[in-house]
Amino acid sequence: MSCSRCGREHSGACVAATLALPEVMASSPSQAGMTVGHYRLIRELGRGSMGVVYLAENPVIGSRVAVKVMRHELLAHPEMTRRFLAEARACSAVRHPNTLQVFDLVTLHDGRPCLVMELLEGQTLEQRLRLRQLEPAEAVEILGQVCDALEAAHAAGVVHRDIKAENVFLAARPGRPEQVKVLDFGIARLAQEAGMTAPGMVLGTPDYMAPEQVLGQPVDGRSDLFAVGVLAYRLLAGRLPWSEATARDAMMARVEKPPPEPGFGEPLRSAVLRALQRDPALRFQTAAELGQALREGAAQTSTWQLPSPPEMSAAAPVSGQTAAALLLAELEPTSGHYALLGVAPDAEMAQLRAALERRAGELEAAGRGAGGEQRGRLEVLSQRLARARTELGDPAARARHDGFSGNYQGVARALFAGMLTGQLEALHAEYAARFPDKVQLASEVGRAAELCVQMHELPRALAMLEHALQNDPLERSLHDRFWALKRDCGQGKSAG
User: Fold this and answer.
1) Closest-CA residue to 17 (of 195, 252, 242, 209)
2) How far is CA 447 from CA 375, 408, 451, in A?
3) What is the model's pTM?
4) DSSP state at residue 139
5) pLDDT one-digit tens code per residue, 294-304
């Protein structure tokens, strides 16, 4: 007889029934303005099922940190408090540049624990994937740093148990490459501890769980390596290895069948498929081994094709106008920077910079031997080009220019080109002060779009979110929702 929970025939308790998924918790009141230890909570940064994260500042020396406050309603559940404290112990046990650093653990007057953590600027890997597909070298660099973090964690006796794109943070560092930070050790298990999980309970995220997690069996560091294999498959193939209709079907699929062929070449293919072996003994045995295999595989793989980026259209190719055509462009005083450069408003930053350099070279060439009248026209064009370079040449400047002119696509390009969250927040505050009616309208339309999503009217919701972005192009949450929904609706190749 088939099981009512998973639809399959089996004996004993249903594995699907033991799945411990995050619950949507009741809303906790904001603690902004409260003092926690030496820090004053300034504003809320985000909420999760376990806690609320705030930007906080030491009022004496001005240093800023992130403070994670356990949700008030969880006080009634001692298991949740133990799990929150376990995150602090796990983070303290793992000291590595690729893990989030916890500085202190303090307790509020009502008994709630709070973690004082390093403050990061950037975005999660999941947010990056909603905007664009990664290049192979970029993907392997991220995966390698995840493996470095896990090698340190496993050496300290910590198994993460929830590696996924949402828990990989891409921290921006001005003037230096991004640094990967592995987040959320909330369900991590210290090897020397027991009792955090009831027998048979399943913890983790269904899409990334190892077969032994699905079956409620003991886990170790190799379970984390399976999750890295799932993440690597997704980054390099553009899709998850198991994409069944429901989470439970996807969980059971990894127990019952191997992943489909990923579609990328050797030796990366073999490395990823080895990480996804159902039997832990057949996988890589350490994170260092997996990281080395991925890095060596990328170095040996000269070419392979990734799927087209699904979230945004490719920018129009630069036209290569001649100096004469540039002179004609000067006669169009209403044309903007993009028309001058010959690129589409959703052009990537690299395309913009290339167009700026090419135009500069064309102007220099046109200036040689030009007559007096032509020199005057070329000077006007040079001034316009200088303004375009100032207003579009880096992500923050472009976000200001495009945000205040209503080009939400340009703002999106600036976001995933490395613009800092703090810069965007400052720009949005300025925009909201100048255009409060537009921001209010965007907020109302965004809420209406959520209702449409709940009623499964996705095309209508997409149109509403685009309208909201046209009114408030600098609101990050609108971007996240719009591009994710655009991808889910199968319209990722249209820039809107």
Assistant:
1) 252
2) 54, 19, 7
3) 0.57
4) H
5) 999 888 764 43
Instruction: Please report which residue ranges of 215-246 form alpha helices under DSSP H.
Output: 221-237
- Bridge-based pairing of strands 39-47 and 64-70 is unpaired
C-alpha dist (Å) from residue 237 to 135, 432, 485: 11, 40, 20
Q: Is the distance from CB of 102 to CB of 186 less than 8 angstroms? A: no
Contacts of 427 (CB under 8 A, 6+ apart): 396, 399, 400, 403, 474
Question: Strands 19-20 and 202-203: what pairing?
Answer: parallel
Distance of alpha carbon 405 from alpha carbon 336, whole angstroms: 11
Q: Is 263 exposed, middle or buried (0-12, 13-18, 19+ CB in 10 A)?
A: middle
Residue tagged 């909420």 (tokens)? 47
Dihedral sign from CA coordinates of 419, 162, 26, 103: negative
Contacts with 11 (C-beta within 8 Å, 6 or more apart), sequence order: none
Summarised one tens digit per residue, pLDDT across range 318-338 is 333 344 444 444 434 445 888
pLDDT at site 189 = 57
CA distance 405 to 399: 10
First to last CA, the chain: 49
Residue 384 in tokens: 């316009």
Residue whose structure tokens are 């009114």 = 471
Q: Which residue has the tokens 């990537």?
A: 348
Residue 204 scores a pLDDT above 60: yes
**Concatenated DSSP letters of 420-439:** -HHHHHHHHHHHHHH-HHHH
Which sequence positions are flagged as catalytic? 162
